Amino acid sequence: MSQRSLILILSLIFTNPVYAHEFWISPVKYEIGIHEPIEAHNRVGQNFVGGSYYFLEKDTNRHEVMQTGKIIKVTGRNGDRPAFQLEGLPNGLAILVHETTNSTLTYRDYEKFKGFVKHKAFKGLPQAHISRGLPKIDFVESYSRFAKSLVAIGDGVGQDVSVGHEIEIIALINPYTDDVSNGMHVQVLMEGRPRANVQVELFERPFNSDGEVQISLYTTDINGIAIFPVTGGHEYMLDNVALIPIEPKVEGDPVWQSIWANLTFYIPNK
Q1: Residue 268, preceding bond cis, omega within 30 degrees?
Q2: In the beta sheet, which residues pair with residue 103?
Q3: Residue 66 contacts residue 108 (beta carbons within 8 Å)
Q4: Percent residues over pLDDT 90 in the chain
Q5: Domain range holding 147?
Q6: Number of domains in the chain
C-alpha cells in the first residue's frame, strides 16, 4: 500500500471534526515573501491548540485564496497536509478561505447541549429547545465551518473583505500595515448583515512559542463590530457561532443548524 493511500485511509477514520471545538486555518508563516510558497494547516481543537487535519475533498465546499478581489482556487489532493499548499503570490494581503460541508452530531446527553448553549451565549436557549417540544436526548444537529486567515505577502498592503460566507468575521483594520494602537476592529456578518449583540470569543498567544493562550469574550455593537487590544508578536483567533432552528421533515433529521465563523491573523512587531 502506498503512503498516500495509507494517509487517506487514516484521514477518513480520524479526521471527522470533534464537535464544539474550533476549526481554524493555521498558516505556517503569516508574513511571506513575494512569490514564496504558502502553507497553512486546517486545525480542529480547543483553546487554540489542535491537530492538523488532512485535506479531504468530500468535507470541503470551498478551498481558495482571495487577493485584490481575485479568487484563486487551491487544488488540494486528498491526504494533503498542510491542507493549504499554494505557489507564491504577488505583493498584497491574501485571504485564505475554507468552507466545510455539513456534518451532523447526535446529542446523547442534554447537559452537553446546555453547556454548548451557555458557552456560546445563545439567547433564548435552551428554553427554545423545550418550547419546540424537542427531546432531551437523541436529537440531531448539523454544523458547518467558515474559516478565514489573513496572510501578508510582501508588505501585505490591502484590506480584508467579505468572501460571501454564510457567516464570517471581517477585519476592519489590516493587522500588517495599519495602526492598531487603538485596538483591532472586526465585524461579524451573517448572510451579509451585521450580527449585533453577539458573543465573539478571542484567543491570543505568542506566535511560534509555547506561551500561554489567553481567552477573552467580547460582544458586538449594533453594527456587529467588536474592538479589542492586540500585542505585537502574537497571533489571534476569533470565533463566532450562530444556532438556527430547523424543522425536520422526517424523524432523525437535524433540529438545529450551527454555523461557525473563524478568523486568524498575526500582529507583527513594529
Answers
A1: no
A2: 143
A3: no
A4: 88
A5: 3-267
A6: 1
Burial code of 8-41, b = ≥16 C-beta within 10 A, e = fewer?
beebeeebebebbebbbbbbebbbbeeeeebbbb
Q: Which residue has the cell 502553507?
A: 39
DSSP string covering 232-246: TTEEEEEEEEEEEE-
In this prediction, residue 20 carries a pLDDT of 55
pLDDT (tens digit per residue) in 231-240: 999 999 999 9
Strand 139-153 relative to strand 31-32: parallel, antiparallel, unpaired?
Answer: parallel
Chain-centre distance for alpha carbon 148: 6
Reported confidence tier of residue 6, pLDDT bands at 50, 70, 90: very low
- Phi, psi for 59 (deg, rounded to 5): -100, 10
> Tens digit of pLDDT for each residue in 76-91?
899 999 999 999 999 9
